[in-house]
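agent> Task received from the user: take the single chain below, predict its 3D structure, and emit C-alpha cells. No templates, no multimer pairing.
agent> Plan: (1) validate residues, (2) run structure prediction, (3) serialize to C-alpha cells, (4) report one or two observations.
agent> Step 1 OK, no nonstandard residues flagged.
tool_call: predict_structure(input=
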Amino acid sequence: MQKSYRAPNPGDNRQWFLIDAKDQPLGRLAVVVANKLRAKDLPTFDPSVDAGAFVIVTNAASVKLTGKKEEQKDYQRYSGFRDGLKHFTAAEMRASHPDRMIKEAVWGMLPKNNIARKMMTRVKVFSGSEHTHAAQKPVEIKL
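)
tool_result: status=success, residues=143
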C-alpha cells in the first residue's frame, strides 16, 4: 500500500516573488498573489500545509480598476464602537491607503482560517516602485 505524500513546511526556505501592479487589473493581480501564497502553483499543493511564498507587490497606487469601480466600489471599516462603520470609495482608498486595496482583494481570495491569517503576513505591498526587500533577491513575475 502506498502512503500518501504530505508536503513539508518550508520554514525559512520560502521563495520571494516580486510583482509590479502598474496598470494591472486588481482582481487578476489578487488571484496571482493568492495562488503564490497558498502554493497552488506547486505540484505538492496541500490546503492544510502553509507552504506558500513571500510576495512583494510594488506600484499599488497605480493598479487598474475597470468600469465605474473607481466611484462605485465600496470599502468598509468598522471600529467596533457604536456608529463606528465607515464607508470609502475606491478613489478615496487609493488616495489614502493604496496598499489596503490589494490586501483586501487578496484576503477575499484566501480561506478564512488561521493559515490564511499567517499567509497575509507574507504579503508586502508598496505604493511606489521602491521596496525594502532587495536583499531577499525576489524573482520578478510578469503578468
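agent> Step 4: summary for the user.
The helical segments are 26-38, 69-72, 90-96, 98-107, 114-120.
agent> Done.
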